[in-house]
Amino acid sequence: MDLINQIVERAKSNKQRIVLPEGTEVRTLKAADLLIGDGVADIILVGDTTEIKNMAVNLGLKNIDKATIVDPKDYEKKEVYTNLLFELRKAKGMTIEQAAKLAADPLYIGCLMIKNGDADGEIAGAQNTTGDVLRPALQIIKTAPGMSVVSGAFLMFTTQKQYGKDGLIVMADCAVTPDPTAAQLAEIAVSTGHTARALVGEEPQVAILSFSTKGSAKHPMVDKVIEATQLAQKLDPTMDIDGELQADAALVAAVGQQKAPDSKVAGKANVLVFPTLEVGNIAYKLVQRLGGAEAIGPILQGMAAPVHDLSRGCSVSDVYNMVAIAANQAIAAKNK
Ligand code: ACO
User: Fold this and answer.
1) Which of 49, 110, 328, 332 is the Cys-Cys partner for 122 at CB 3.0 to 4.6 Å?
2) Cross-strand partners of 121
């Protein structure tokens, strides 16, 4: 996987501060040790200091003493973060007492560190559910300027080298927004194209998928995809975006030629955008499990800073790769 090596090398060339709120989780701690050893990022671990140190000894980890540890029970900026959270959420009814309590929650601390400029990105989710990881991020870090919706993309390294970039296809939304409106779907399409551009280094050919190709079926669900396509093309006229396309018309040249002969994208899509989360989440897991693809993600897009949610079934290398990806996104944001 050359692409991941490139992402890791780019991260090493300009080290970013990445916070790992699940500092006492074994896979997270092992990944932190490797990341520090390889010089990929400056790692901040949130968790009980003694527990982290004891775990590092028991697991034989040599580099954890070089991580910054933030102990939720008692850390230097607790009051600063409490006040920051209170200011951000008081209009939503949060009291200072509630803010103080949440400023001791590792998932809130991670996001508050980013908001306060003390970290550049966050990776969590080896222990916590997607909702619990995303909620503080959506409340504190919020969406990027010009964006109203957050979504999750996967880099799918499939074995079918004839598709995408040597089998690599970017898929979204597989993780966040259950039932996007046409306008939200348009944003998801454009931000997935940007993710492909930033990480894959190839011009995106974005297909917004449906069970219909260019009017072959009539249904309100199809209408949503047609509207989303028109909106997405207006949002970013420089990007090749087309819909509504069925998956085979999007991917297979002969089928694309037959079903959508005038489409710039049909038959050569390298970015697949799903009409709902139900489709996206099921589809990526089927491609992964039945198709034998390596899935890297979800890479959250549309957020004002890189925050990524791991699957609870993640491996040490998943944590490692997501830290490198977050670091790349932080570097790209700083270079904008
Ligand atoms: N984009 C941008 N902002 C959002 C989004 C979104 N998609 N969803 C919610 N928000 C904002 C809201 O506007 C709100 O902001 P505010 O409080 O400042 O007004 C804040 O986030 C919280 O919103 P709620 O509606 O209270 O949050 P909710 O409880 O609905 O949680 C969440 C949002 C966590 C994203 C929810 O929609 C969810 O659970 N989605 C599915 C996640 C999931 O389970 N994915 C599948 C597993 S992942 C995998 O398999 C890889």
Assistant:
1) 110
2) 18
Q: Which fold is adopted by the domain 3-142+305-335?
A: Rossmann fold (3.40.50)
Residue among 85, 130, 138 whose CB has most ligand 1 atoms within 8 A, to mutate: 138
Q: Which protein residue's CA is at the shortest distance from atom 45 of ligand 1?
A: 175
Query: Which tokens belong to 41?
Result: 């990022």
Q: In whole angstroms, what is the distance from residue 291 CA to residue 304 CA?
A: 33
Residue count of the chain? 336
Find the farthest-apart pair of alpha carbons in the chain and give their distance in angstroms, rounded: 64
Residue written as token pair 């830290």: 323
Structure confidence by residue, pLDDT tens digits, 183-197: 999 999 999 998 998
Tell which atom from ligand 1 comes closest to the C-alpha of 285.
Answer: 50
- How confident is the model over 214-243, as pLDDT tens digits? 999 999 999 999 999 999 999 999 999 999
Q: Do domains 3-142+305-335 and 151-295 have the same CATH topology?
A: yes
Cis check for the bond before 309: say yes or no (omega within 30 of 0): no
User: Residue 199 CB: number of other CB atoms within 10 A?
Assistant: 23
Q: Is the CB of 4 under 6 A from ligand 1?
A: no
Q: Roughly what angle, to the nearest 10 degrees, separates helices 220-235 and 182-200?
A: 50
Torsion of Cα atoms, 198 then 200 then 203 then 205, to 10°: -110
ipTM, interface predicted TM-score of the complex: 0.91
